Amino acid sequence: MASERVTCSGCSLLCDDIIIKSDGLYIDEVIGACLKGKERFDQITAKNRIYNPLIRKYGVLEKATLDESIDNVINIINKSSKPLLYGFSTVSCEAQLAGIKLAKHINGFIDSNSTICQGKVLNISKETGITLTTISEIINKADLLISWGANPAESIPRLLNKALFSRGKFRMTGREIKTLIVIDPVKTASFGVMGVRDVALQIECGKDLDLIRVLKEECCTTDSIPTNGVAGIDKDDLKRLLLHLTGAENGIIFIGQGILGSHNGSTVIKELLELVQLINAKQQKGRISIIMLGGHYNMLGFDHVALSVCGKNHGLQFENNQLIESKDNIISKIENEDFDCSLIVGTDPISHLPWQLSKKLMAKPLILIDNKQSATSNAADIIIPSAITGIECEGLAYRLDHIPIDLKKIVNPPNNILSDKEILDKIMEGFKED
Ligand code: SF4
């Protein structure tokens, strides 16, 4: 039984220090992964794995051949004038590129989960600028970690292990000089890892903007901290937060769903990025950087691929096989029913989206490419199973710090299941043969 070092694609941290024991057919042991990562490797034989293409006939999903299902996909898209392609955050960059090419060929609209998550930060950063960093720099140099609207202890389970408890290459000290500040309205599991010198800030729900505005004000005019504090945070804690932000040598703000998904998210993100730029402009000895905590392992990949081929990171609308100007995203497209069929790749919008939107999505022909059953697979008209990237097929993915990482194939997929890229290429070939 051979041991091999591989990368886990269980979340966007893409830990590259996982040891697996495999005979090339099965994975017998996974060493070093968290529970979420272990679950990812167990997906190969999970109960909810999809092994065969399925086509809905008279309301019931029935087994089909791959060729039959591809023909049916092509039939649906041929009848469509407004195809919608969505997902692509749990597939390789190669599959994302194949999806964009397909969208262009069929004059569709393509968007990824990033559009309602970290893609917002990248969009806003075009106006404000953004200071980014890498996991290696965090491990080696960070002295301040701020988790804002995030729960990394559960969403990216090994992030705090690596960032907070590591010593780094360049100093003799580790956890003892690192301060963790958690800002969240909910007392999540991430509050549980706090030590005596850390700062727990249970902010009032929806008041992030008030806090950011006070911090921005304080960075310009010191000594006027509101006596009653702000957003449920008292004066002393506010002062501690400000001192840490302006005094850190290498501080990181991890932005999570609490901020990315909030109702006034765009304003909050814009002002938070402005605050960071303001602090960095004034800081003589250090800086604050941003890391976005998108959960899906290659959500960032879509932003990078779309930017590099289209100059726009999401919400790509094609007409006459050209990218055209569009302010739409997946939400507005579904809300306005501006689509007549959908091709969903590697995600579960029927669970993730509000019911009113899911209902509209289900009302039109729905094609799903995925490796596991979900609420979306229950509603789909055609399901094509895909191999698990990073286990059953290779591909490129972007880690949460924008570093491209190669994912390897470890074992063969069951039933000769194709990768997402191969399936999308096959659909594309079908159109060329028309
Ligand atoms: S933290 Fe993420 S990438 Fe690392 S082992 Fe856990 S699931 Fe896998």
Task: Provide a descriptive summary of the structure in words.
- It is built from 17 helices and 19 strands.
- It has 434 residues and is an alpha/beta fold.
- The chain folds into three domains: 40 residues, no CATH class; 203 residues, Rossmann fold (3-Layer(aba) Sandwich); 174 residues, Dimethylsulfoxide Reductase, domain 2 (3-Layer(aba) Sandwich), CATH 3.40.228.10.
- The model has no long low-confidence stretch (mean pLDDT 92).
- Bound molecules: iron/sulfur cluster.
- Iron/sulfur cluster binds next to helix 1.
Number of DSSP strand runs: 19
Heteromolecules bound: iron/sulfur cluster
How do the strands of the widest beta sheet line up side by side?
5-4-17-16-15-6-7-13-14
**Average pLDDT metric:** 92
Summed up, the helix count is 17
CA-CA gap between termini: 48 Å
CATH topology annotation of the largest domain = Rossmann fold
Question: What is the CATH class name of the largest domain?
Answer: Alpha Beta
Strand content: 15-25%
CATH architecture of the largest domain: 3-Layer(aba) Sandwich
Q: What are the segments in which pLDDT stays under 50 over at least 5 consecutive residues?
A: none
Q: Shape from CA axes?
A: globular
How many structural domains are formed by the residues? 3
Return Rg in Å: 23 Å
Share of residues in helices: 25-40%
User: Which structural class do the helices and strands define?
Assistant: alpha/beta
Largest sheet: 9 strands, mixed
Provide a quick synopsis of the model.
By secondary structure, the chain is α/β, with parallel strands linked by helices.
